[in-house]
Request: fold
Amino acid sequence: MIENLFTHASSLFIATNVAVAQAAGTPGVPWWVWPLALLVTTFLIGIVASLAGVGGSVLYVPIVSSFFPFNFDFIRGSGLFVALACSLSAAPKLLKLNLASLRLVIPLALIASSSSIVGAYLGLSLPQSILKILLGVLITGIAVLFIFSKNSEIPVIGTPDPLTRYLNIGGAYFEPSNGKNVTWSVWRLPIGLVLFCCIGIIAGMFGIGAGWANVPVLNMLLGAPLKIAVGTSMSLLAITDTSAAWIYLNQGAVLPIITIPSVLGIMVGSRVGVILLKTAKPKSIRYIVILMLLFAGLKSLLAGLGWG
Amino acid sequence: MSSQTFVQNNRVKSVVISQPKAIVSTNVEVSPEQNRYASILLVCSWAGIIVMLITFLLYMGGLFNPLVKPSDMPLYWGLNVHQYLQVTHAPSGWDWMRLINHADYLNLVGLAFLGIVSVLGYISLFIDYSRKKDFPFLLMVALEILVITLAASGIFRISGGA
Reply:
């Protein structure tokens, strides 16, 4: 039943995008169609994103820039608020369950949020054709990363580095699947800080939340258990995206008529997705997301090259 | 070499090898500062979203005399931000605060509030870490507040258009 529902949702998603693409070339379309179409599209993105375990804005920016008539500047500004709102709504529960660690969040967030300001600067200064090419390459790369990445539930780590020991990073959480407490720490924190600097620049530049990059770095490089990596990533985004969002807001690149339906649609959609998650098959959904990312990435690349 | 350990019935069982003693806390209870920070995020983010929803409905309903009506937005939303500011004479930085009696700028109140939620949480962390005399984290929290405040202050301006 859930599979059927998901198939219907996918069909509706495609139909909405086709209708939107057709309407984009029709000057007589009433103005209110756009925020309404955006609300429906982001609602569906929210469902798909939470079923596939990805942040909504990584789908939002390439899809909305492909099918809606809004300028890329405003879409990236909205993308940051979409990521920020999703993070703010999910982080409190994860922090209260000890599935996110503030002692890990704080140093990484400081680096990522500072560099996201640089990214926002670059994003608002570079020509849009260049940005679309870079976004196309990035989104296609993320799709490939999703195909080949293998997260580790509880990675095996070596001796924590001196910085991790100095900052006393580590903790414990309850694992309900085996009824045990899992204690954890991380290693290679200095390398992680360098990578989070790059992640912050990308997040600010393209207006996408960086969960797709945060989780592999936290899990595979730093050695945080997968649940801690996901929770910490979600809590990090609330801070990383705040700095960049302010740059876009102060620059006038946030239009409420685009941003607010997007935020509301994706938040409601992601809650519905979480409910469906109990019975859905994440693997098939993951393949659909990979295809959507490949499609959106290639479309953005072609648009940047002037071929789309 | 592994650092993963499991705790059951108050007995610690190392899964593979040993866990560095200096780091690991086996206490699964959330620290008070983390709990407080999470509560601030929870309450403030929902407050921001409710404000956002109400102001958006007012805007879409044509109330509070918007400077750019929603029905006129299709003329402008295809422009890049630099062109948009020129054509609509929209303010940049915090100048929009003077226009919040207009529905389109009133909408920015909820969005701006979402942008300060993390700072509110960090202020509570600053107080907690000061009490605990946890200086490395006190310094990082202070720097983060500074970074977000600078970003929010509007001193970083991007001139011209791409």
Remarks:
- Chain A has a mean pLDDT of 86.
- Chain A touches chain B through 91 residues (CB under 8 Å).
- The longest helix of chain A spans residues 72-96.
